[in-house]
Design a protein that fits this description.
Layout (H helix, E strand, L loop, with lengths): L1 E5 H11 L4 E4 L6 H14 L2 E4 L3 H13 L4 E6 H17 L5 E7 L16 H5 L3 E2 L4 H18 L3 E6 H4 L2 E5 L4 H4 L4 H11 L6 H4 L5 H22 L16 E6 L2 H11 L6 E4 L1 E3 L3 H8 L4 E5 L5 H13 L4 E3 L12 H12 L7 H4 L20 H11 L5 E3 L24 H13 L5 E6 H17 L5 E6 L28 H7 L4 E5 L4 H12 L5 E6 L3 H7 L3
Parallel strand pairs: 2-3, 2-4, 4-5, 5-7, 6-7, 9-10, 9-12, 12-13, 14-15, 15-16, 16-18, 17-18
Antiparallel strand pairs: 1-8, 6-11
Helix pairs in contact: 1-2, 1-6, 3-4, 12-15, 13-14, 17-21, 18-19
Length: about 550
Amino acid sequence: MKKVLLGNEAIVQGALEARVEFVSTYPGTPASEIGDIFSKIAGESGVYFEFSTNEKVALEAAIGASFSGLRCLVAMKNFGLNVCSDSLLPFCYTGSRGPFVIIVGDDPGCWSSAQSEQNSRAYAYLAHIPILEPSDAQEAKDFVKLGFEISEKFGIPVIVRTTTRVAHQRMPIVINPKSEIHWIRSRLLAELHLKQKGKFIKDVKKFVTMPPRVLEMKRELLEKIEKIREFAERVNGDRVPVNRDSVSANLGIITSGISYLYVKEVLEEFDLDIPVLKLDFFYPLPEKKIKTFIKGLKKVLIVEELEGYLEKEVRALAKEINCKLDIFGKNFLPNTGELNSKKVLSAVIKILNKKVKIPIPLKNKNFETGIPIRYPTLCQGCPYWSSFSIIKEMAPQGTIFGGDIGCYMIAGFPPHNIQDYLLSMGSSIGIGHGVKKAIGNKEKLIALIGDSTFFHAGIPALINAVYNNSNPLIIVMDNRITAMTGHQPNPGMGETGMGEVSEGIDIEKIVKACGVKNVKTIDPVNSEEFKNTLNEFLNKKEVSVIISKKICAYYARKTGKN
């Protein structure tokens, strides 16, 4: 049975076929659709699902479920892996009891991840965690199932690393039709299933990372990785048909993930008989497989996006098996941005030193269209329009504006131009505190942060600013939803990811509980009240907070809420 699915939809399908029981996430593109889908089907599919307050909490919740024997999946974007790394590294030491898969969506080219072009493969070396790299939606589904298999067999969490082009491509997927039937049950039955299935068995030697046991855990982890390496040798990666008698038989290509599709397209389009080794495992690498592939070659091209981690590994292996091998990689391919067929073809042509007839669209790689730059803009009716206008009007000359992660990032573009720094979730407050300590009261500072981001990472930074006698003005842009990633609920909504009613967390009460004396919730449409409050709070000697509270216009139209 085949069904056309988005890469992220295929991941959900793979998790269902692997009989997942517990799913947690914090929304972040390019992985957002995974949580969106589970939030709709969890109740009827026998799966517990939650939108957690941040990725660290999402990981920890799933770790608890795994320690209790459940089959768990956590999904996040690349920066989410940074947020949860504090718990990820010791979790690799303890290992999982219930099978555990982590989906991480990287974003080469920074299409949705403006802060940095992170290559999450580096965590393999830091955490010693297995990483699988699917190249398309079919493999996304299959590798999730493979990840559960590896995790169950070796008692270790497994990362399935996707990229934007894998997560957001569509293709016909081979699915197990029984997966859509076997797991349909009522929400009540799903909850009973989890309560009956989960059982925490106390085991201090297993779950507590304290010296001297923690050093034994690390040795055990490294032993697991070597066993998984042997397992990886037996997993057959895809290969392009090889003709060793061809003119290019002295050249081979090693690649993985989405880069494989670019290689495949070039070879098929230009009828090039170049042997290809596609690696499904990034870590641990199947070293024997690589050595066998490069043994008889004169040249090898390593095709991978971003930093050349794979290239470094191949160079080290070549010293043992084929020291005269010419290795090409980042000398012909970029370290930044996405790859494409044009870039791969250019590298192949240079190495082969032969003429290839290139189609016009590929030849004109520097073609300029003359289209003027179009900046992102807020939606029609967005409450941020009035908020930004008032802030810009009332802020004194020289005011420093702190940006954060959410729709209000657009404040940095014309016509608003009110964003002087931007790093990560919650950093508008944390950095703002440091700036104010450095400059004193010479200039005013306004830090912007959204409601979901406030719950995610803003509260510790607020406490720190209050505790250390700082005085930034913080404006919480509360549009009643996690808007930028697709209208997912957050703790202020009074509704969970499975649609259940919950206690809505009042931001103003949290702010007051953190010790802030100057706090006020305002509808930005009430411009006079907003202006007067902003003017008053800018002159306070301690931390002040304005909560600009009005529902996202698009979400209001979609749901009828106000």
